[in-house]
Amino acid sequence: MGGYMSLTGEPEGEPMKVGVPVHDLFAGLHGVIGILAALRHAAATGEGQHVDIGMLDVSTAMLANQASNYLATGQVPKRLGNQHPNIVPYQVMPASDGYFIMAVGNDATFQRFIEVACRAAPEAAAEKLLDDGRFKAAAARVENRKVVTETCNALTKQQSVAWWLQELEAASVGCSPIMRTLRKSSRTLMLLHARW
Questions:
Q1: 24 is catalytic
Q2: Active-site residue among 24, 52, 131, 132?
Q3: pTM of the entire predicted model
């Protein structure tokens, strides 16, 4: 009812649910926030509070930029698969041996991505994209999503996931591996060193 399934999945595919119970988790977290605020209020005033959390309320509130886009434009958001509605490229990227996530949040980051792409495939002359109006600015990249995505995908396919992660991290371009199983995810370095 909150609208998530209409936003989740491939553009031409059926609506999809998220792989974990996000609405339950959102409601639980908001409940804890409400309880902490009520305890703080009680400590300051001696008065109690009533905390009321509704899953529909919480799921609607968590629509974030999707709701903002709709309220600002009146256009109903569409499913974009793994792409971001307001930033391109900010999505799953294909490499020569798998996939990774890349987050190019602004024009300076896009320029750094292009610098890395020039090393990945010198013959592709990726530097020319910085002079192409469809690629130069963030708004233009969103407007030209299809050609930008296809062009960037062609570039990232030229090297392995490990190569891209190393080079993008060194260039301060947001990126992440995609763990294919929970077993791999649970063995990541960050989780191994977490203190529970």
A1: yes
A2: 24
A3: 0.81
